[in-house]
Each structure stands twice: as C-alpha cells, then as structure tokens.
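Quick illustration, no need to memorize.
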Amino acid sequence: QVQLVESGGGLVQAGGSLRLSCAASGRTFLLYRMAWFRQAPGKEREFVGGLVWSGGSAYYDYSVKGRFTISMDNAKNTMYLQMNSLKPEDTAVYYCAGGPTSGGEYDYWGQGTQVTVSS
C-alpha cells in the first residue's frame, strides 16, 4: 500500500506563509494523481488543489488560486503546498491524498496537519 505523511502545519498570523509537505512511501508506483484537501471545524472537507504524480500543471480551487502553489519533488516522493497571504478562513486541518487513476476517489490519505491563521 501507500503511506502519506503530512508535516509543516502550525500557527501563523494573517498575511503570513506556511509550506506543507506530504511524503509518500510504500508502493508509490500506485499513485497517479495527488491532491490537498482541508477541513475546517464544523465544515465538510473541501478540495484545495492537485496535480498528476509525474508532474505537470497544478489546478486549484478558486478560493486559493493565486495564493497557494502545489509542487512535486519526485526524487523525494514528496508533494508540497506553499501557502502565501494566509487568511483566518484558511484555518483547517490539511490532508494530502493520492489516487491510482485520473478520476474517481482518492484511495490514500494522510493523517492531516493543523493550520491555524490568527487575525
């Protein structure tokens, strides 16, 4: 199987930046696409952005486009989420996810990392 481990969360003031990492291990050849999701207290989990494991352009939800950047380092089997101009509404637990195909469900999930943005 595939294991995903997020890191890099923390507390930051509004307007600040954080970089999250998602390290993949195990049968990484099963991964075709990767994504970041987030879930705020009392809200449903929402898609932040994603890309294809092998690289290429990332795509984003409109709420983060222009502020967040997703990238891959295939040599390290690690995906990153660079978050700039953070807002209090970005406060959530952030999860990385991986899927074996171009569509459908994401089969593999990390444990999540907390991001808190203070006003």
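The mean pLDDT is 95.
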